[in-house]
Amino acid sequence: DQQVKQNSPSLSVQEGRISILNCDYTNSMFDYFLWYKKYPAEGPTFLISISSIKDKNEDGRFTVFLNKSAKHLSLHIVPSQPGDSAVYFCAASPTSGTYKYIFGTGTRLKVLA
Amino acid sequence: ETGVTQTPRHLVMGMTNKKSLKCEQHLGHNAMYWYKQSAKKPLELMFVYNFKEQTENNSVPSRFSPECPNSSHLFLHLHTLQPEDSALYLCASSQAPNSYNSPLHFGNGTRLTVT
User: Fold this and answer.
1) Cβ A99–B4 below 8 Å, yes or no?
2) Of B70, B71, B72, B78, which is closest to residue B36 (Cα–Cα)?
3) What is the pLDDT of residue B98?
4) Which residue, A56, A94, A95, B58, has fewest beta-carbon neighbours within 10 Å?
5) What is the C-alpha to C-alpha distance for residues B48 and B34, in angstroms, rounded to an integer?
6) pLDDT tens-place string over residues B80-104
7) Which positions in chain B touch A45 (Cβ < 8 Å)?
């Protein structure tokens, strides 16, 4: 049973437009969420995180939104650039005491020039 | 350049071989992790070490044996693996397990093929 789901395996977006990547979770104990980006032949790279006390966190072109009632988070990339083409993973964990980050299966983003 | 270094990058081994994966982190972190990434599956946590002590073994078969001699080094010893163990094995580190502002930092992984 997957506790973190990324239902879109792939997404194509035109350069300069907004990319929206979605993630749903089922465990109401999760209260810390992260997004990672992964290029081929490299390990995942941390992008941005959000805790459940917030509903939005912004870092440059990247914004993560959290809707706790819907158990949904999304990553917005504006404007999208060809270098953003990668696989994006969301991850979730409860912050108290456990070591388990639960990852989604990833969404492959392709930004078209 | 990543602060977490994994060697080798690629490994092909037979089912009767014994090999080891190595991970070293240069970030001053005190927790280290092994993850497995199989095709079309989420990253699966295998082991966690916190200050050299194993704190998590996520029901991993005994043919995978971790070793953490200090907070900067982590090994994964492999023996009598199965073809279904072929995957990307990722090492990660963090400042403290699951603390705020303590995301995982990953190495580039070892692509393992078991023949």
Assistant:
1) no
2) B78
3) 55
4) A56
5) 7
6) 999 999 999 999 998 876 555 578 8
7) 106
Count CA within 13 A, CB hemisphere, residue A16. 1
Burial class of residue A46 (count of CB atoms within 10 Å of its CB; 0-12, 13-18, 19+): middle
Residues A93, A73 contacting (CB under 8 angstroms)? no
Q: Does B66 touch chain A (CB under 8 A)?
A: no
- Closest to B100 (Cβ–Cβ): which among A32, A41, A100? A32
Yes or no, beta carbons of A99 and B33 under 8 Å apart: yes
Q: Which residue has the tokens 């995301």?
A: B103
Pairing of strands B44-50, B53-57: antiparallel
Please give the backbone phi and psi of residue A83, each rounded to the nearest 5 degrees, phi first.
-65, -10
